[in-house]
Amino acid sequence: MQLLELIPAPCGAPKITLSPSQRKAADGILPGLQRGDCVVLQDFTSHGKSTVLDYVHKEPGGSRIGVREFLTKLAALGPMAIEEAFLDLVDREIEASQGGAQGPIIVDDLHLIKNVVESCDYTRQNLFDAVMTAVLASASAARRKLLFATGEIPVPLSRQAHAWSIADLPGKTTRPSARRISIRLHAGGWISRRFIASRPA
Q1: What is the mean pLDDT of the chain?
Q2: Model confidence pLDDT, tens digit, residues 15-28
Q3: Where are the beta strands (DSSP E) in 18-173?
Q4: Which residues contact 142 (CB under 8 A, 6 or more apart)?
Q5: pTM to 2 decimal places
Q6: Per the structure, how many domains does the chain have?
Q7: Is residue 36 situated within a structural domain?
Q8: CATH number of the domain that 138 lies in?
Q9: Per-residue pLDDT tens for 78-113?
């Protein structure tokens, strides 16, 4: 009788492979999280922000907030409580640090929330900036680092965050758009770092 040898399936999470542009962004984000309290991964199109976040999340660990978590919280609070749902989600992760949670709090697709609260029909204009200010202050007080993935960066976040962008993929026609991001130094004072964020033509 022929015997079949059973070979156990490999365990563990699959290896995350990054493109050159994703690797460049990740190589900036990881030391950025070591040096500063707040980092932004910026991309105006779909160039794999979530893949970079998966990679970064695997390295230092931490917690992650995405659209699914936000919508679940919003369903519990009501459709008009957009800012409250976002604030509650981040506050919950900040409070977890008191129980020994480590690593950054990673917020994916921040621009999806920002687009809603900055639409012309939204009745609570500029409230999201106040919420972002509160989030940054709470995280700083709890010594929790923050990593956001977004397109346009909210003003309160741009004043405090180190920012890296994912370059356009080969084969796409783009026109460069210069943007200026302010970086707050731990030693005090301000500098500006200029980089090119390409958008599809």
Answers
A1: 78
A2: 888 888 888 999 99
A3: 38-42, 63-65, 105-107, 146-150, 162-165
A4: 94, 95, 97, 98
A5: 0.74
A6: 1
A7: yes
A8: 3.40.50.300
A9: 999 999 999 999 999 998 877 666 789 999 999 999
The β-bridge relationship of strands 146-150 and 63-65 is: unpaired
Quote the strand ranges of 15-158, DSSP E: 38-42, 63-65, 105-107, 146-150
Contact 160, 188 (CB under 8 A): no
For residue range 116-154, list pLDDT tens digits in order: 998 878 889 889 999 999 999 999 999 999 999 999 999
Distance CA 79, CA 65 (A): 18
The answer to whether residue 136 sits within a structural domain is yes
Give the per-residue pLDDT at 133: 96
Contact indicator for 117, 82 with CB cutoff of 8 Å: yes
Helices (H) and strands (E) in the chain, counts: 7, 7
Structure-token match 């936000």, residue found? 70
The range of the structural domain enclosing residue 69 comes to 20-169
CA nearest 197: which of 91, 40, 13? 40
CA angle 143, 66, 123 (to 5 degrees): 95
